[in-house]
Amino acid sequence: MPEMLLIGCKLPHGIVMELPPNPNKDDFMKPRAHGHRVTLNGAASLYNQRQKKAVSTFEYALTPVEKSFAEEWFKRNSDRDFIKNGFVFIADKQDRAEGIAKERRDLATGLEPLNGDTSSTGVPVDPRFTRRNPDPKLIEPTGI
Question: What is the rounded distance in angstroms from the CA atom of residue 37 to the CA atom of residue 29?
Answer without folding.
Answer: 18
